[in-house]
Design a protein that fits this description.
This protein is of the alpha/beta class. It folds into two domains: 230 residues, Sandwich (Immunoglobulin-like), CATH 2.60.40; 323 residues, Alpha/Beta hydrolase fold, catalytic domain (Rossmann fold, 3-Layer(aba) Sandwich), CATH 3.40.50.1820. The protein contains 15 helices and 23 strands. The strands form seven sheets. The protein has a nine-stranded mixed β-sheet, sandwiched between helices. It has a three-stranded antiparallel β-sheet with strand order 1-4-3, covered by helices on one side. The chain has a three-stranded antiparallel β-sheet with strand order 2-5-8, with helices on one face. It is elongated and about 90 Å long. The two termini are 52 Å apart. The relative contact order is 0.10.
Length: 650
């Protein structure tokens, strides 16, 4: 193939995930091409695996698949994809330290090739190698899948007050004439015939890149340190297919345990040691399972098979559920998704609020959680998988598929849990509530499930790999795991691994799905109103990840009554409440599990806000779901504790 020959000629990316800029030390280029005098440049030398990421140079132009050399992870997962991340950063390494004030939207540009307009980005300047800068350039909102982007580093970037220059290879790529004659001999003094032939194969396809950069900047290429292109991967191919297939399934619940009537419900709560959790509005509890189409060969090392457009079904998976009903569940149904390491039993902490308002409540165990966990392992072990990045993506996608099955069961009227030939739940008005990991999975689910038109996402976020590392509670485990694999925090390989992980997880990351959730573009135009709830200074899901989600959603912050208590994130608009439709609300002086556990914050206030949003939305035919500003932070019941195993930490 053309690109593989090309890569071979240039010894391209011989050792992916190497640290640092070569600074000319490993290049075979002649010394005559070294920038004169002290200079700083953006590192680009394919012969020593030193290039900005992502870049289309590392893709096979015939197949479209990424072509990073090497075996194992993360190469195997990345090379299973046809393009680069829509949400991850560009990683730019410089040969020396650059001036922080010179790194901004006018000095480093990302251009959409279709609209020819700049993409809003953020910058993170780091020193990952002694005396050298690395800049991470991240899009504020997701890039468009399957689209080419032009990246330009201008000479407005400076080092020690002086504009940066071009690397040796970049200077040669600017040549507008051929580097070789008709006989293949070098026309450039100091370049051997072999060198010139190899570089000519690189120079020719770079000409339109330089021309585009000149048009954008209004500068000649001689004044542009570097420019390149990358193409984003296609997204949203697999899950709509799974959802479409689900409509042909008949999902029948198998009830294994029933607790009907006040006495049995009371005994059930006491048997779990949670008798203090409110349950007076719950008239029945049902535990059982459904059979959901399965696409995982193994939840630890068996990612989806087949093509993105035609994933291979591998039988059915038994998915446990827990449902509660009240005296009247005709209004609708709350589908709840639990957090990382948690189980379906968490629905009991909010079931009373739902059942009291005429809503049924149901939850299932996500992949590798609860009754689906690994033997002798805590719930959730392996869900985020560093050894096989595709498993992190596909554990989310399988969990979303299981939620499709649950939703289809409800919409089909197959909720006759007690055998009286009458569904316990209404077939209409499904609403979704996800907490922590449940919000991550749920964002993807709601964006692709037409049955759901209202969603509340609590203590959750987006850009999953960065979110996990930045978590005060979860980050140390991830960081230690990478350290054991030789990837140290604060090094270039660490940032490259996170970039690789984000690229692989993209098709299951809320950042990408939030961008289309409210418009309904992935579910036949069915719109969805969303409430996002955040606990300021959350130690499990960092606020930065929640803000990424909110920016992608495009929702506004609903202001608290006291202006001093508002923490308006960069790039997020704000408005006073109450608000009709979608919004983002911040709670303070609490912890991660505040929606479920009054010991961690304003549970009653948060649940009141959630169910007001749901009920006003349903009552208005989804035209006026209302987000209230809770009157206080500590309106919950004193003494109510959350004694389930491993209470959600904050």
């Amino acid at each position: 193939m053309k690109n593989r020959t090309f890569l071979s000629l240039l010894a391209l990316l011989v050792a992916f995930l190497v640290a640092g800029c070569s600074g000319g030390g490993g290049s075979d280029l002649p010394s005559g091409f070294t920038p004169s005098g002290p200079a700083t440049w953006l590192c680009f030398d394919p012969s020593v695996a030193d290039i900005p990421l992502p870049m289309d140079l590392a893709r096979d132009p015939e197949t479209g698949f990424n072509a990073l050399p090497g075996e194992g992870e993360p190469q195997a997962s990345i090379n299973s994809l046809q393009g680069w991340s829509t949400s991850g950063p560009m990683i730019l390494n410089f040969s020396a330290l650059v001036d922080e004030a010179s790194v901004h939207a006018d000095s480093i540009l990302l251009i959409d090739s279709v609209t020819n307009t700049p993409v809003p980005v953020t910058f993170r300047l780091q020193t990952l190698s002694p005396g050298k800068s690395t800049v991470l350039v991240s899009p504020v909102r997701p890039l468009v899948p399957s689209r080419s982007y032009l990246a330009i580093v201008t000479n407005r970037v400076s080092s020690g007050g002086k504009p940066i220059t071009s690397s040796q290879v970049a200077e040669i790529l600017k040549f507008q004439g051929s580097l070789v004659d008709a006989g293949g001999h070098s026309k450039v003094p100091g370049l051997t015939d072999e060198q010139a032939q190899a570089l000519e194969k690189l120079r020719v396809p770079w000409q339109p890149v330089w021309a585009a950069a000149e048009a954008v900047t209004g500068q000649p290429r001689s004044d542009i340190p570097f420019a390149w292109t990358f193409t984003t991967q296609p997204l949203f191919q697999t899950l709509p297919i799974l959802r479409q297939r689900m409509q042909a399934e008949e999902i029948i619940p198998v009830v294994t345990q029933s607790f009907v009537g006040a006495d049995m419900v009371e005994a059930f709560f006491q048997s779990l040691g949670v008798a203090a959790v409110p349950h007076d509005a719950i008239t029945a509890v049902y535990i059982g399972y459904i059979l959901s189409p399965n696409y995982l060969a193994d939840p630890l090392n068996g990612p989806f098979q087949g093509s993105p457009e035609n994933p291979t079904r591998l039988g059915s998976a038994s998915v446990p559920f827990l449902a509660t009903v009240g005296s009247n569940s005709a209004t609708g149904t709350v589908i709840f998704a639990h957090g990382i390491t948690r189980t379906k039993a968490d629905v009991l902490a909010l079931a009373n609020s739902a059942n009291a308002q005429g809503l049924g409540a149901i939850s299932l165990d996500l992949v590798l959680h609860g009754d689906r966990k690994l033997p002798d392992q805590p719930s959730g072990t392996g869900f985020i998988n560093l050894k096989n990045l595709r498993m992190s993506r596909d554990n989310i996608r399988q969990s979303v598929n299981d939620l499709y099955a649950l939703s289809h069961m409800i919409a089909s009227g197959n909720t006759d849990f007690n055998g009286d030939q009458t569904p316990e739940f209404s077939t209409d008005n499904q609403v979704f509530l996800g907490q922590s990991l449940g919000g991550i999975v749920g964002t993807v689910f709601v964006a692709t499930e037409p049955n759901v038109r209202l969603a509340d996402l609590n203590a959750t976020g987006a850009r999953v790999p960065r979110m996990m590392v930045d978590s005060v509670k979860l980050g140390p485990v991830i960081i230690e795991g990478l350290k054991e694999a030789g990837i140290e925090l604060g090094t270039l390989p660490f940032e490259q691994f996170l970039w690789a992980a984000q690229t692989v997880v993209d098709d299951a990351d809320p950042f990408n799905y939030a961008n289309v959730l409210q418009t309904g573009s992935l579910k036949d135009g069915v719109t969805t109103a969303v409430l996002v709830q955040e606990m300021v200074d959350d130690l499990v899901i960092p606020n930065s990840a929640t803000h990424d989600l909110v920016r992608s959603l495009g929702t506004k912050l609903v202001l608290r009554t006291d202006p001093a208590e508002n923490r308006i994130p960069t790039g997020v608009e704000a408005e006073p409440g109450p608000v009709i439709g979608s919004g983002f609300f911040q709670y303070i002086n609490g912890m991660h599990g505040f929606l479920l556990d009054p010991g961690q914050g304003p549970t009653v206030a948060a649940q009141t806000q959630v169910f007001t949003h749901f009920l006003t939305g349903i009552a208005s035919g989804y035209t006026a779901p209302t987000i209230l500003v809770p009157p206080g932070q500590r309106t919950d019941q004193p003494g109510w504790e959350f004694p389930f195993e491993a209470s959600p930490e904050g």
